[in-house]
Amino acid sequence: MDTSSLPSYPEMIMVALDGLNEETGSNKTSISKYIESKYQNLPAGHATLLKHHLNRMKECGQLMFWKNNYMRPRPDFIRRGRGRPPKAKDGMPTSDTPAKPRGRPRKDEMDSNDPSGASVPLKKKKVSADNGEQPTEIRRGRGRPPKAKLPMGGEGVSAQA
């Protein structure tokens, strides 16, 4: 088989689209039949090569694919690029509000009289009656308190049953 006299697949596809001249485009089968009727001595993997070149031309923007038909792109057609569009280059923020400082405000800026400012509630310490001091406040520890232990030797299920 002498395939050197054949034009490239993209050229054959464009000639087939022009020859078929369908308004809504041409499907892969009709393009393949047109190429087979016009060109002789096609390679053995013609269907695979045609599919590969159609997909490549579609991704490059040389062909449009709509409702399972391939067509030439219209001249006014603007192809969107893949992926997320780039951010605007403007240095000025688009909102009218001033920028907020990042992070949590400092503790000394918080109102110390505000009860919502205290993140951990305080626990009063019990003092015995013979001690004349006022009860002092202590902070509760972090995390969940330990589970209360059951007294040893209580009634329960024995292991020797």
From TrEMBL:
It is found in: Chromosome; Nucleus. One of its GO terms (cellular component) is nucleosome. GO terms for biological process: chromosome condensation; negative regulation of DNA recombination; nucleosome assembly. The keyword Cell membrane does not apply. Residues 72-161 are annotated as: Disordered. Residues 5-74 form the H15 domain. The keyword Nucleus applies. Keywords: DNA-binding, Nucleus. GO terms for molecular function: double-stranded DNA binding; nucleosomal DNA binding. Its main location: nucleus. InterPro entries: AT_hook_DNA-bd_motif, Histone_H1/H5_H15, WH-like_DNA-bd_sf, WH_DNA-bd_sf. Transmembrane segments: none annotated. It comes from the Eukaryota. This is H15 domain-containing protein. It comes from Saponaria officinalis.
